[in-house]
């Protein structure tokens, strides 16, 4: 029991330390790429899969026929959705899902989600790779809009028969129209590397306390047997 408990506490400490390293890597990448020149469709295609956090400037048009809301997105304790729309390249040979921003949940007294898309022929923003976590349930059609627990470009490319790219775009607040686009806090910033390191130290402290408790127990037991 003593050894099992120690291994569990040490594994939790190691896991938090790994998470700290991952968050630091993501933060460093985000900061290092923030000042890079914005890329167009061709420039992004040349990067292959290394597109996360790259600034983009794309020519084309929005299509309000293809909208999907990412459910359960919180802002300052309020439930809401982030609304994605399809943006077609000018030549029509590729398209990308663009995050238009956040709005309060229309299921909890919030306004109905508008089906308007920005009336622009050029967008600027930052490329994003959708997380690979698994959610329960498939996308559902509700109140005239698709709702999903995560964004899967491959799924929508097949369903809508569109040449969607594997990455998405977080639309810049400078582009008029859309929804709330403060993009803060980002997922990587809600719990930073220092917080994970702090939790790792706490688990290590608990592991030490666990060992001391068992050491005291064994000493007490041994002294009882001697008597």
User: Total number of helical segments?
Assistant: 5
The H-and-E topology, N to C, reads as HHEEEEEEHEHH
**Could you give the distance between the termini?**
26 Å
How big a fraction of the residues is strand? 25-35%
Number of strands: 7
Helix/strand class: alpha+beta
Shape, principal axes of CA atoms:
elongated
**Measured on Cα atoms, how large is the radius of gyration?**
24 Å
Output mean pLDDT.
82
Unreliable segments (pLDDT under 50, ≥5 consecutive)?
A: none
Described by strand count, sense and barrel closure, the largest sheet is: 5 strands, mixed, barrel
Q: Please estimate the helix content.
A: 25-40%
Number of domains: 2
Strand order of the largest sheet: 1-2-3-7-4
How does this structure look, described?
The chain has 227 residues and is of the alpha+beta class. The chain folds into 2 domains: 1-33 and 187-220; 35-183. The protein is built from 5 helices and 7 strands, in the order ααββββββαβαα. The protein has helices spanning 2-33, 41-46, 153-160, 187-190, 193-226, and strands spanning 55-75, 78-89, 95-104, 122-128, 140-142, 145-148, 164-171. It has a 5-stranded mixed barrel with strand order 1-2-3-7-4. A hairpin with a 2-residue loop joins strand 1 and strand 2 (78-89). Helix 1 runs antiparallel to helix 5 (193-226). It is elongated. It starts with a helix and ends with a helix. The model has no long low-confidence stretch (mean pLDDT 82).
